[in-house]
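Input structure tokens:
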């Protein structure tokens, strides 16, 4: 019998989510970090196609934009906040759960827990990952 895993944020340890994560298509990389009183996810790299899609929707660039906003740890270990989707021009109710050290399940919903979409994001390893994303 397998033992149940402890929640990723047991005791409010939100810092376990900090780092750089890539979406399933590897078209956007977010740095999840402390943003004052809450946690946010800022785009540190985007593929040319992701940038073009954002421009079609009226966003000049994805780099530096907060896609995850006002995220806070919940008692059950989930992070909750708001998710901005530039191609749809909407902000959704969002949540994130750390599945394991390399995997995060992110979910955005239109109304509460209704009409939701979830994705598995993968942590990007390496100390130079942010330096490699810096503008020339």
């Amino acid at each position: 019998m397998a033992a149940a895993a402890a929640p990723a944020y047991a005791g409010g340890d939100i810092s376990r989510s900090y780092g750089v994560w890539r979406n399933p298509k590897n078209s956007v990389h977010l740095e999840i970090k402390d943003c004052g009183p809450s946690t946010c996810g800022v785009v540190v790299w985007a593929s040319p196609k992701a940038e073009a899609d954002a421009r079609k929707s009226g966003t000049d660039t994805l780099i530096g934009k907060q896609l995850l906003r006002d995220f806070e740890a919940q008692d059950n270990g989930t992070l909750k906040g708001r998710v901005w989707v530039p191609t749809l021009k909407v902000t959704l109710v969002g949540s994130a759960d750390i599945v394991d050290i390399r995997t995060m399940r992110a979910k955005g919903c239109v109304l509460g827990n209704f009409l939701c979409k979830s994705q598995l994001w993968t942590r990007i390893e390496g100390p130079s990952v942010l330096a490699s994303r810096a503008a020339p």
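The mean pLDDT is 82. The chain has two helices and eight strands.
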